[in-house]
Specification:
Order of helices and strands: EEH
Shape: flat
Structural class: mainly beta
Largest sheet: 2 strands, antiparallel
Helix content: under 10%
Length: 91
């Protein structure tokens, strides 16, 4: 049993709308005969992956929700934000 306060443990969670990941392969080729003894051939092979597994660091800072985006929007529109004022105490 791992206590809740143990910060070294890992936790996995899955979205209930989870879908299976898949990979698509594309192949394209073109051949052109220049003369009776010379031909040119071009080939392309590509791979496209969709809906792969991913990890999210829950402790990573996110500018959309920590107030920085709101301060940026306020400064961009000509207003004043708490981040830009010098009289605001931080910490």
């Amino acid at each position: 049993m791992i206590p809740v306060t143990d910060r070294t443990g890992l936790m996995n969670a899955f979205d209930p709308n989870y879908v299976s990941p898949y990979v698509q392969n594309f192949t394209m080729s073109a051949t052109r005969t220049v003369s009776s003894k010379v031909s040119v051939e071009v080939r392309y092979i590509g791979t496209l992956s969709r809906k792969l597994y991913g990890n999210m660091d829950l402790n990573a800072p996110n500018f959309l929700y920590n107030g920085l985006k709101q301060a940026f929007d306020a400064a961009r529109s000509g207003g004043e934000s708490a981040f830009a004022r010098s009289d605001v105490q931080t910490g």
